[in-house]
Amino acid sequence: MTPDSSPGPEEEPSGSPVPDDVWELFLHDNERDIEASAPKELSARARVAARRIREEKERAAARGDRRPGLGERVSRPADGGPVASTTAAARRAARQREKERRNTRRQLLHNLIGILVVFSMVLLALSPGRAWSMITFRGLNGGSHAAAAPAVTLGPETARPAGPPAAVSSRRPTLKRPFAGSPAESWGDGAAAIVPPTASAYFAVSSQRVADGLRLAKDLLVAGSIDPAVVPGAGVARVVALIDPHADDAQARVLGALAHPTAGNDPTTLFSRFGPEVRLVGAVVKVRGRMTVGLGDTYGGARIVADYTFVYPVRKTSDTGNSPEITRTVVRRTLTIELPADIQRPSGLSAVALSGWTGSAVNGGCGFHDGFLHPYFADGRTAPGGPTRGGTLSGPAVDPYDRSGPAPGGDGGCVRAERI
User: Fold this and answer.
1) What is the 3-class SS of 84-134, one letter each residue?
2) Using an 8 Å Cβ cutoff, are 391 and 374 in contact?
3) Residue 222: inside a domain, yes or no?
4) Which intervals carry biased composition (Basic and acidic residues) (predicted)?
5) Based on the structure, what is the number of domains in the chain?
6) Distances (CA, A) of 193 to 62, 96, 224
């Protein structure tokens, strides 16, 4: 009888039993230890990061340039290989770019220095004083006198001003700035400041004749008030030649005034001539005024009226110092010129029909009727060598720069100046 090999009800199952120590640990584990040792599920952020790393590896593998992952080492060939060659080429390219940038900066610096040198040479040739001021930083904004810059030149006067010019600084005139402290510092210079209006036909006078009349009116003003040959008291032939001898008796009156000046026929009303005791400071005469064209006295004719103010800075001839006393004489002069109709005088104009003129001088002398201007200085006297017997400044006080009204006159130059 073959014995039954099946295990009895109380026997252990066949096979490898669980070790006793593991079984003992399992029996004694509590719930907390089981939860601590159990595997944990990754958080959402960790899953996103892991997915990005996995996708990046897949894309790199698809491009064939797989980068080393975490924990992997980069193996580099001992001889440098392609990676070392690429790095060296990049360094050489960077050095080349830096060298090119330095060369560009150096070239720009050289060009700037060249421009400054050329500008300095041109400025030194045209205005040595201004160049020296810039070199010494006195001509820049940080200079010692912010108000030392000359005033901006005004444009031509086109209509009668509404009032006198505003007050300016109280700076005293100097050899370099003889018009300092005067409104005339912003006026035009000499003949360039006499700008006739645009010529156009007027009644029976053609535009060409009007243009000729305006040109001759300017020539007459320049010859009698600005010409360096007239201002020091020299020749007056050019002025006389511009006056039509057949129009009234204007030319004869002018010649008579020059030969025998009187209070009623004083040539200083037409000429700005100074006595030999003074001389002009510099070569600039400041000018302000305008010309107008209107209806003339003759049938179909026109009339030109020129109203201008001239400012002359003068010094004593006997004062040869480097800081002389400088004063100014202001003369306002008005000329009236008749233009006949073309049918009355078909030929062109070579002289003007001067029908009238007036002239008043402020600080040109009082009671002197010798045909010359004799300005007073700070002591109330004329310069040494000038006339001493004259009138007194008993007339009204006037502003010689005020062009909003008529010119003062009829008092022999004895008005008092509010400013000069």
Assistant:
1) HHHHHHHHHHHHHHHHHHHHHHHHHHHHHHHHHHHHHHHHHHHCHHHHHHH
2) no
3) yes
4) 52-76
5) 1
6) 86, 62, 15
Residue 244: inside a domain: yes
Cα angle: 412, vertex 336, 343; to 5 degrees: 155
Per the listing, tokens 């100014």 go with 328
Dig out the tokens for 389 from the structure: 């017997």
Task: Give this prediction's pTM.
Answer: 0.66
Residue 1 structure tokens = 């009888």
pLDDT higher than 70, residue 205 = yes
- Would you say residue 66 lies in a domain? no
Question: For residue range 131-186, what is the model confidence (pLDDT) as tens digits?
Answer: 555 655 544 443 444 445 556 888 889 999 999 999 888 899 999 999 999 999 99
Per-position b or e across 158-169, b if 16+ CB within 10 A of its CB: eeeeeebbeebe
Show the domain range for 398.
Answer: 188-417
Is the residue at 149 inside a domain?
Answer: no
CA atoms within 13 A on the CB side of 140: 5
Residue 319 identity (one-letter amino acid): D
Dihedral sign of CA atoms 22, 27, 33, 35 in order: positive
Question: pLDDT tens for residues 229-273?
Answer: 899 877 799 999 999 998 878 999 999 999 999 988 999 999 999
